[in-house]
Here is the input.
Amino acid sequence: MAGVKNNRRAQYTQQIIQETVLGLLENKPINAISVTEVCAKADVNRTTFYRYYTDIYDCVASIEKAFVTGLQPLEESTPTAALEHLLTAFYEDKKLSNLVFVEGKTKLLERMQALMRRTGPEPPLIDDYQGAYIGAGLQSILKKWVKDGMPETPHQLTQIIINTILAKNLSEMRDAVL
Here is the structure.
């Protein structure tokens, strides 16, 4: 039906705009992407873009929300299995990986962490400082993984993250320093 915001044509147009934004994020930061550039590459006019999004950041937020909403529930899962599940979903949608590099302008990692807290098992007790430290470390590992072209499988990266959080490989270094 014409005029319905969620009809097939509207969904297709939104998909084209989102794919164009993701494609542009491969080579430039979000603040360097203009609506005019997106419209030219997506072959849509500015009115069409603004029918669905207020700006580029709104488009990115829509992409993030759809990605996180599309993840399967993580109930009754261990923290390791929940992490691997999220990494697998991320791995399967590699264009979305560019959002990891949008410093301070994207909420993807925060949304993924919130999803894990909401639907996953009860996490072990950690204080706010430990949570901030682990979150920053996880973000850095994920950025490096994406920047290097995702050479490890989600399972391998999950093990790397768990070993890093638990400092498994650092005991020899600790002994040498102390």
User: Anything to note?
Assistant: Residues 128-147 form the longest helix (20 residues). The CA atoms of residues 100 and 153 lie 17 Å apart. The chain is about 65% helix and 0% strand.
